[in-house]
Amino acid sequence: EVQLVQSGAEVKKSGESLTISCQTSGYRFISYWIGWVRLMPGKGLQCTAMIFPGDSDTRYDPSFQGQVTITADKSITTAYLQWNSLKASDTGMYYCVRRRDGAFDIWGQGTMVTVSS
Amino acid sequence: QSVLTQPPSASGTPGQRVTISCSGSSSNIGSTSVNWYQHLPGTAPKLLIHSNDQRPSGVPDRFSGSKSGTSASLAISGLQSEDEADYYCAAWDDSLDGPVFGGGTKLTVL
After folding, report:
1. Quick check: B24 and B91 in contact, CB under 8 A?
2. Could B51 and A110 be called an inter-chain contact, meaning their C-beta atoms sit closer than 8 Å?
3. Nearest residue in A to B50, CA atom
4. Nearest-CA neighbor of A16 among A71, A74, A87?
């Protein structure tokens, strides 16, 4: 069974750093793009970044370029999303997703990130 | 403001057929396939339709998708109370070189 298991909820202050994780299992990690999709109330879904673990190729949404960093560790089939300096506007639910045949077919359970100013 | 445009809300009574529209442009829907996601409260979103009109295993055939030009639609027939959820369309955007979503449509079953 394909599974994406994310790290737990985080409560941080503006300016702090944060890394959230997505541990995968049940499929060939290096063969599929994996990404992070943010859900904000009233603003819908937005894909922040994606990475292809096979060669570490990355794609960033222009709104998130320079604001977050996506990485992947092939040895433990885990993807990460990192912030160096959080802002209140980073608050939201972040879902880890696998991309297959042009669609996000598997979703993690979500990681709630709350940033206070 | 989302790249793809959906109505913010839709509603229907049990048993009815409802449709949700998704409008884009030549750089996204006009040149790539459309996917639809269902987001039930308190759960992770789920892939409902991929490649314009294909249902993943386990999705009831009450759900169907279509695409024409730069627009797409999701139809739900035989509406049930458990269909009350947020629905999002998505597609790859060649200009942005990344996936884009609609703003979501909140479906209410009256």
Report:
1. yes
2. no
3. A103
4. A87
d(CA B6, CA A103): 19
Residue A41: predicted pLDDT:
81
> Which of A45, A59, A103 shows the shortest C-beta gap to B98?
A59
The yes-or-no verdict on residue B79 having pLDDT over 90 is yes
> Residue B45 and residue A103: Cβ atoms within 8 Å?
no
**What pLDDT, in 10s, does the model give residues A50-109?**
999 999 999 999 999 999 999 999 999 999 999 999 999 999 999 999 999 999 999 999
Using alpha carbons only, give the angle A19, A20, A26 rounded to the nearest 5 degrees. 135
Query: B90 vs A46: CB contact, 8 Å cut-off?
Result: no
